[in-house]
Structures are given as C-alpha cells and as structure tokens.
Amino acid sequence: MLDKIRNFSIIAHIDHGKSTLSDRMMQLTGTVSDRDIKEQTLDKMDLERERGITIKLQPVRMEYYYTPKKSSDIEGSPNEFLNLSPKKEWENQNFILNLIDTPGHVDFAYEVSRSLAACEGAILVVDSTQGIQAQTLANLYNAMELDLTIIPVLNKIDLPASDVETRAAEIKKILGYAPEDIIMVSGKTGEGVDLLLQSIVERIPSPK
C-alpha cells in the first residue's frame, strides 16, 4: 500500500499562511471536523498561538478520497490554466497524506531539516502580497538537495493586495517554475486547496 501514501512538508516564510493552509487541508479531508477546527490547529504551544509562529514540528495524517478535477472543471477560476494530471486509475480511492508542519522562523532551521529528510515532497508557500523571502529560499534549496518534489503555491489570493501575476512571474524568474505549475490558494477561504490536495497525490511520489 506504499503507492497510496504521500509524505510531504510545507516550506514557507513566517506569516505566509502555512498554518492556516494546514488547517484548511485538515478540514477538507475531514481530519478535523468543522465544529472542532480552530486557527493554527497544529500549533500546540501557547507561545506558538500567541505569536502566530510554529516552533516545534507537528505531524498529521490525513485520509484523502481522490476525485480529481479536470481543466474544464476550473475554467474561470484563478487556477484556470493550472497543469493538472488526473489519474483515472486512482479515482475513488483513498490516499494517506502525511503532513509535517514545520517552523517558518529562521531560528528553527534544524526542525525544518529533520522534517524534509522524512518526506518525498514539499509545498512551497509564497505570500501573494509579499513574494519570495530569503528564509524561504534557504529551506527550498535544502529540499532540492534532498531531491524532493516541489509544488509551488501562491497563498492569500483573497486579499486586495494580492498580486498573483507579478508573484508568479517572480517565482518563474527566480526558481524556474512555470506559471501553469503554480497553484493559487487562499488558506483563509479554502479556495484552490482542493486542487492542492489533488496535486499532492498526482505530483509527489510515494515512499520507496
């Protein structure tokens, strides 16, 4: 059953919405009920919740029922031109998504490196209002050295200050990812998170 498992981490600068995005993923997969969901669910320490930062890595196991969307299903959305690779042979099957929520602060780089070493893929979250930050790049290069599959994500697309076009061009210029490989999401509203879950199954390899 290893082919139905995906191990991944999230790379993000502090305050780029990583914990909120994790909340929505747990909510959409039914890992945490709508009634029990709260902000920063994976941040257990009082200091983490008070300061809005993740200090200690937290693993979470999610069950995801794969019912893929096709390009025609998302016409008119911010992800209209997203490169999707739906697998018909996987339809209506359950996948285990193992997420390790990692710190975004520069002082906790060791925790991040431990998380990345346990994964086959990583979600690169970039705030669409701020763009790529230096700490994000440092962790990304670490993930690349470990030969992880990277899924680039632009978060906070619901905000008025969001500049998706500029940030996508920035990601392409600095990191080389094509705009059609970048997933536009809002961790706050949940927009695009279903496509992110689908892409995790499609793009990240199963553990060997």
**What's the CATH H-level homologous superfamily?**
P-loop containing nucleotide triphosphate hydrolases
Report the principal-axis shape.
globular
Question: What fraction, in percent, of the residue positions are helical?
Answer: 25-40%
Count every helix, treating DSSP H or I runs of 4 or more residues as helices.
6
Strand content: 15-25%
Low-confidence stretches: 42-49, 51-56
The major beta sheet can be summarized as:
6 strands, mixed
**Count of distinct structural domains:** 1
Instruction: Report mean pLDDT, rounded to a whole number.
Output: 84
CATH fold naming:
Rossmann fold
Number of strands: 6
For the record, the CATH architecture stands as: 3-Layer(aba) Sandwich
Q: What is the succession of H and E elements?
A: EHHEEHEHEHEH
- The CATH C-level name is Alpha Beta
Distance between the termini: 11 Å
Overall structural class, as computed from helix and strand content, comes to: alpha/beta
Strand order of the largest sheet: 2-3-1-4-5-6
Write down the Rg: 16 Å
